[in-house]
Amino acid sequence: MSSFRFLHAADIHLDSPLRGLSRYEGLPLEEIRNATRRALDRLIAIAIEEKVSFLILAGDLYDGSWQDASTGLYMMKSLSRLVHAGIRVITLSGNHDAQSVIARELPRPAGIDHFSYDAPETIRLEDIQVALHGQSFRERHVRKDMTPTYPEPVSGWFNIGVLHTSLSGYGEHETYAPCSVETLASKHYDYWALGHVHARQIVCHHPWIVFPGVLQGRHIRETGTCGAMLVSVENNTVQSVTPVACDVIRWSHIVIDIADLHDLDDVMHAARLRMEHALAQADGRTVIARVTLTGTTTLHDSLCASTCWQDDLRSVAVSLDTGQNPIALEKLRNKTTSPPTTNTLHDLDTALSKLMSDPEFIATLSDDFEMFFSALPGCVERSSLMADENSWPLEEASSALRARLMGSAS
Ligand SMILES: [Mn+2]
């Protein structure tokens, strides 16, 4: 029975670009370019600071084949620092860094263990009696559940399953090595160190099934704190699973409903407050924000007519830069709508009246009604829905529509 701590991370996607940024003056490009490397630096620093026994990287260390060897060399240099500090490293390949995807591999120094591509295997840390079970992806697309062939737990030891998986399906994440909480639980391991799903999530506490999430958010759908999980084990029992932030750039989606604002100055003021809040939340990190304006407003037309407000908003962002904690704008979205005007209503009403007096239009409607009636179950009498054989309920429909339109304007 031993006590130790370890770090569980996944989805580093080293050197993958941060996406969706439009270039403009004031965008900290250099900082953005190196974000995934600096997040890895933080992970390494935390591992050393926290004196963990080992680090698990559960797949997608790389985003795909390297542009050049420097990506792989940076990873090896970083992990070697842990080895020198006496911290073991256990890595696994996922879909993005499957054997068939990464054109070449660099030799790994002793102290870094990489799960086999051929079959599930057990890596044993004898001194602390920890058994890690796992298998790397050979091909990018793994469609079958990999867990049935995972080894039996080592009795009396602390057992960890390492797996890159979409579990039973997670929204936008493609299906890889599908499995369920039940199949994972049936292996009788103590902790499942998963990777692939980029949103941090503790799926289950008995056993622990954990996605640490992406190490550094890379686009506007990866907002909020990103990093790794610090796991504390005492007498072979997990005491705590604590998220630790490793990201150096924080993505934030700021949605502002401007329905109640009167002019663009008010919009800028509201945006400033929200940006200040995002910066305060980011704890010294650079923030990349998308600002989306919503709501039904008379400002809609002027927002559409000019792009000046976008420059104004960028200017607000730039003015918040204290020199160490900038906020950059990824994109500005105008999703406001214009309130219906009396003119629009009048136009609609005229169009409706015109249609109702158009015999051709009435004929097509009659066909629709005919289809509707023929689809009704036999027990519904046609006569209960129509005043007489040749009168469709058109007047009722059009006056109901008129009433709705007038109602929305008031
Ligand atoms: Mn993946």
UniProtKB/TrEMBL annotation:
User: What's this protein's name?
Assistant: Metallophosphoesterase
The source's superkingdom equals Bacteria
Ordered alphabetically, the record's keywords are: Hydrolase
The cross-references to InterPro entries, in alphabetical order and at most eight, read: Calcineurin-like_PHP, DNA_Repair-Maintenance_Comp, Metallo-depent_PP-like, Mre11_N, Pesterase_YhaO
**Entry-linked Pfam families:** Metallophos
Q: Which residues cross the membrane?
A: none
A GO MF annotation of the entry reads:
hydrolase activity
Q: Which residues form the Calcineurin-like phosphoesterase domain?
A: 4-199
**Originating species:** Gluconobacter cerinus
